[in-house]
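@channel sequence for tomorrow's demo:
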Amino acid sequence: MRFYKLIGLFLLFAAGVFCGVSLRAYFRRRCRQAEAFLSLLRYYRFQVNCFSAPERAILASFDRGLLAECGAEGTVRPADLGALLRSARLYLPEEMSELLFSLSGELGGTYRAEQVRCIDHYIARFTPLCEELKRELPKWEKLALVLPLSLSAALMLLLW
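structure tokens (generated this afternoon):
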């Protein structure tokens, strides 16, 4: 009977470790995705400002690695930012996701200067949110590791 109790305690501790590591990876992925979308917005601005490139051409020439960080899956590139956002699994906070979805609705259909102003506006709003995520990442990582381990340790003590 004691053997089964030890096995149960070990499994409980292993679940706490796994949960902590998974949460830590989630918070890192969230920060990387925000930085990738910020790079995409800056790239959009550059392409629209310098070449007046259409959305399909912009996404076709964007780096595959950063596009994958944004959440694009497979080898088929999305047609526009809206298609990328709808097909991607977003780890971003709600406010950042709403900004990206509203930007995707405003892109295209206007003159170059208007599009550059619009993208600049969204970059100015997106950058502080991205910086806040980067600044808070160590806190969230620590919380993600400590909280599940503490909870599993407390449950182990209660069950012992």
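heads up for whoever presents: The chain has a mean pLDDT of 93.
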